[in-house]
Design goal:
Helix content: 55-70%
Radius of gyration: 19 Å
Distance between the termini: 53 Å
Shape: globular
Order of helices and strands: HHHHHHHHH
């Protein structure tokens, strides 16, 4: 059921389901979405960013939001730090990967690399002192996405090198990286 809420003229932007307490989907009007995007990293809580990404993906699947609008939203997550937000972006990327033709896929991969790579560069490939377990998990998820759906050649090469290192000494590779390394090696492997 669609509910339209009129907003007072003095509102520049508004977050429906503020705090993420409601169990419903939100689809913003184009004007409100533009305003919410401006506030994405500065004024939205992680749960609100998650809901925005998740709801926009759901409305894209339902045909209510254009794929272009969803991809434009994904582009804004380069500076995202929350694992749950990234999970939504990564899962949707894998879904899209399955339905695109070859030309669309190459363009999509470029776009994903432009989003995933800056986030991974910020985290780096190696854990740092004081890092949380969620940051370590996010690193593995970003590496996995960059090396598989993003088809980043440098990431794939590094993953193969680390996997070879792991085979020689399993303690030499951070445990949260191992699933990503295995996925990338399998994704890029041949019959041998």
């Amino acid at each position: 059921q669609e509910l339209r809420i009129p907003l007072p003229e003095d509102f520049d932007w508004v977050v429906a389901n503020a705090g993420g307490h409601g169990f419903y989907r939100v689809r913003y009007s184009p004007e409100l979405m533009t305003a919410v995007k401006r506030e994405l990293q500065s004024n939205l809580l992680a749960v609100e960013r998650f809901n925005l990404a998740n709801d926009t993906w759901a409305t894209t699947l339902a045909g209510l939001t254009s794929l272009t609008d969803y991809l434009d939203l994904i582009d804004l997550f380069r500076d995202e730090t929350d694992l749950n937000v990234w999970t939504t972006v990564i899962i949707s990327s894998h879904h899209l990967h399955r339905i695109l033709d070859d030309v669309q896929e190459r363009l999509f991969q470029e776009r994903l690399r432009a989003v995933f790579d800056p986030a991974l560069q910020r985290l780096t490939w190696s854990p740092r002192e004081g890092e949380t377990e969620l940051e370590r998990q996010l690193r593995g998820d970003l590496i996995n996405a960059l090396g598989t759906v993003g088809e980043d050649r440098a990431c794939q090469q590094r993953a193969r090198e680390l996997y070879a290192q792991y085979e020689k000494d399993p303690t030499s590779v951070e445990r949260n990286l191992l699933p990503a390394l295995v996925s990338i090696v399998a994704h890029t492997g041949n019959s041998a």
